[in-house]
Amino acid sequence: MVEQWGIYEVTLNGPDQVNPFTEVELTAEFKQEGRTFEPHGFYDGNGIYKIRFMPDAIGEWTYTTKSNRAELDGQTGQFTCVEPSEGNHGPVRVYKDFYLQYTDGTPYHQFGTTCYAWAHQGNAMEEQTLKTLAEAPFNKMRMCIFPKDYVYNKNEPVYYPFEGKPLKDWDFTKFNPEFWQHFEQRV
Q1: Cα-atom radius of gyration of the chain, to the nearest Å?
Q2: Are strands 140-142 and 162-165 parallel, antiparallel or unpaired?
Q3: Where does 20-167 have alpha helices with state H?
Q4: pLDDT tens, residue by residue, 90-128
Q5: What is the model's pTM?
Q6: pLDDT in tens, 44-98
Q7: First vs last Cα of the chain: how many Å apart?
């Protein structure tokens, strides 16, 4: 079961002997009452592949995976989408050209801050930042995905986004799943 505008995740075991970022194709067809959505999947490390989907309507949904790899192709399932929980207003969208509102019509007024290299500072600094911001009025935080070098930030990031050696010997065809998992936990 998943709530409307929540995230339904399909997790599959697949190949890790090939380059999963360039040699494996994975999608899933999510269907409900004649409507079809086909999000792409991604490799999450250690032979694990995931597909994430946000159902926009309450009711029964089915899915079937599609892949160029036999072990990932043709996997099927179903789930029930239920009413959204309190505070879940759906994605933010443009309203009347100049405004933002949630899908359910609730106005969205963003008030943000910037923490560019925050997710690359190590657990102690990241936890301190979260505690500091917990009582702040912000509902948006802007940050960099890739580590940057600043005058006031000379520490070495714990994780890098690509496999290889920093800073000039990256393998841009192979992401580092640990980096993206860490980033996702923080965001």
Answers
A1: 20
A2: unpaired
A3: 123-134
A4: 999 999 999 999 999 999 998 899 888 888 888 888 888
A5: 0.85
A6: 999 999 999 999 999 999 999 999 999 999 999 999 999 999 999 999 999 999 9
A7: 24
Which residue in the block uniquely carries the two structure tokens 């996997």? Answer: 75
Contact 60, 54 (CB under 8 A): no
Tell me the pLDDT tens digit for each residue of 136-159: 998 888 888 777 666 766 777 888
**What tokens were used for 72?**
């990932």
| Sheet of 26-32, strand order | 2-3, 76-82, 59-67, 26-32, 35-37
Q: Which of 1, 59, 50 is nearest to 181 (CA)?
A: 50
Task: Supply 14's token pair.
Answer: 């697949």
Q: CA-to-CA distance for 144 and 128, rounded, in angstroms?
A: 18
Closest among 148, 151, 15, 150 to 161, alpha carbons compared: 148
Q: Give yes or no for a contact between 72 and 24, defined as CB atoms under 8 angstroms apart.
A: yes
